[in-house]
Amino acid sequence: MSREEDDGIVLQCQLNDYYPNKLTVQWLLGDQPVEAKNKTLQNTNTGEKTFTHISQLSVSSEYTDQLYTCKASHESEEYKEDFNMCAAKSLFKPSVEVKIAPLRDLRKKSEVTVTCIVKAPDKTKVSWWADSKPVKNNPNESKDVFHNLVSNLTLSQSEWFKWKTIVCTAEHPCFSKESGEIQAGDISVDPLVLIRRPFPESAFLECVLNGLPSGEVCIVFLANNEEISGIDCLDWAPSEKNDPSTELGLGPSVEQSGSQYRKLMCSASGFNPKIKWLSEATVKPSPSTITLMEGGQVKVFSEMLVPQKEWNEGVTYTCQMTDGDKTENKTIDICEVLAPSSRLADIYLLGPSPSYSRPVTSLYLTCLVIGHSLERFSVHWKVNGKIQRPFKQDPQHHVNGSQSTRSILEVSGKMWNEFVVFTCEVKHFCSTNTQQQNISKTRDPKKPTVRILRPADIDLFDAFNTSLLCLIFGFFPSGIFVEWTLNGTLLNSSQFTNSPVVAHPSGGFSMHSSLMIPVSQNETGMYSCVVSHESSQVPVTASVENIFESTVHTAPLAELLQSVNGLVCLASAFSPPSINITWLLGMSELPYYTNTKPAKDPVGKYFMQSHLPLLSSDWVSGEVYTCKVSHVTGIQLLNISKKAAIFEEAVFVNENKQDLVGQDSVEEVWNMAFTFLSLFLLSLLYGCTVTLFKAKPE
């Protein structure tokens, strides 16, 4: 704690309720010890024997940024408290503002008064400096109504015009130095002054100035060195719009006399600007239009047509503006207006065909470049830093406005098998950066996994196209070739679409290929997804067949079986999958049976079963149970009774006919023929045996 006392301040450090009375107290000013008054008191109120120590240090009340510290130690414990005079008092940072008497008064007086207004706490010292040297003149200091410190420095006009800068500084012990600065009278400028008569029909005169720094400006008209007008003073603050400026832009394409041109437009504003066109240091004549703007400025506008061919070749054009002793050049070329994205191309490197592993003498590498205006790009192949001689195709134009070109490099099979690195470099003539891609034979290629996803049945019955999806994943490197075949015959590439190759989450790369099968070409046969990759000497193939079997109307093969716990009705090899199986006892439909859902077999047909729970004890002799199979192709009825425990009759009902056809009639004929043939063979064998036995010699 602290308290003011006379002309100083007493700092007090008090430590309470300690025991035993073994306490050391020390005051520090910075890191130097200082003497203080100490006294120790014993407390008896609480009944316990404790002590209180008071240490007091008297310091000057002057502002100082020095740090006082009270340090105490008691039984290996240390205590510390700091005090700073500046931090203890709420003070605000000084601010300085410098003003000069109006220029209008300077014309009438022989002295110049500079005023410094300082907003600062007490004990702030103000000083004046001119050109980094202290001013010997004694300033007049006072307080204004806001309790700000005001310092007025009076100078003669000779002193004023002799110096360049005058600085007012404010210093306080608790803050860093603050200052304010003004420019004095010695300002070496050559302003541009022009008297105009903007209205030819009147005697109105206009005085236009340019090239002055910020500050107060006074203007007066003279005739024969005598003032003919009053003085007009204002605060001058030059802005960018008052300085000479030039703008250069690109206009649209123009056709003249069957030739294409690009229009360049240049405008300049200033005091008295003039425009000149240059191309590769050669002056290009072009007319200009001059306009007098509000505020006294002049604006010049000029256009120039340049051949489109020169523009595309990157020729640089310059609009040169001169205004008095100032010159400004603005240049433009095709590189200035091209978007950064137009200077980049997409590069894809294609390795040799997967058949490269066979003995061959030469292979072909392809650098595919896709972008816009590819004639502005250069494509080079390099091997070990040496430029090769590839074959380059002319750019192909695409419907989306882009172009593509291929650069094909022939290399020896020996170099490829030795893992030589081949580099394709692509560079736009406006860019300083070169794009490049490298390719070499992969040392550890990964074989792709190929799978075909069958279309859903609902898609097969769609009136539109059907598609097969081939998934290819886990291969490395990314170069791959995918095609489709039907019964071994290659399909047209317009029927399938290959996706871009992307990184696969489990490693390597992946892609997919979608084969579109028109509804008019729902052919039976085997569709194959054929994948060529350098990891395998033969293509990796996945195949599916009988895709459209489920769309062909096929009647089910029905069979009725008896088990120990009921009857089972089987329906198989039918399509489409929509089917219904019910049970009848006599002519009444039974409610308690269980049907499975139709399932697809390997050849694309469907099968299902229906189970009727029935105990032998519940089956009355003579009762006939019927399995009714309802399908789009017709209705089948399968009957069974307890007496025979076999099929009594299977009737096929064709909805297109009214007659009933017995299915077991054919079976009876075959059974009779088989029985007759068996008896005939047995009788023949018996006759031959008896004859041989009797004919045996004695």
3D architecture notes:
It holds the Pfam family C1-set. InterPro entries: Ig-like_dom, Ig-like_dom_sf, Ig-like_fold, Ig/MHC_CS, Ig_C1-set, Immune_Resp_Modulators. Keywords: Immunoglobulin domain, Membrane, Transmembrane, Transmembrane helix. This is Ig-like domain-containing protein. By secondary structure, this protein is mainly β. The chain has eight domains: 87 residues, Immunoglobulin-like (Sandwich), CATH 2.60.40.10; 89 residues, Sandwich (Immunoglobulin-like); 47 residues, no CATH class; 96 residues, Sandwich (Immunoglobulin-like), CATH 2.60.40; 100 residues, Immunoglobulin-like (Sandwich), CATH 2.60.40; 101 residues, Immunoglobulin-like, CATH 2.60.40.10; 111 residues, Immunoglobulin-like (Sandwich), CATH 2.60.40; 32 residues. Helix content is 9%, strand content 51%. The chain contains eight helices and 59 strands. The chain has a six-stranded antiparallel beta sheet. Strands 31, 32, 35, 36 and 37 form a five-stranded antiparallel beta sheet that branches. Strands 40, 41, 44, 45 and 46 form a five-stranded antiparallel beta sheet that branches. A hairpin with a 2-residue loop joins strand 49 and strand 50. The longest helix has 31 residues. It is flat and about 170 Å long. The termini are far apart. About 3% of the residues have low confidence.
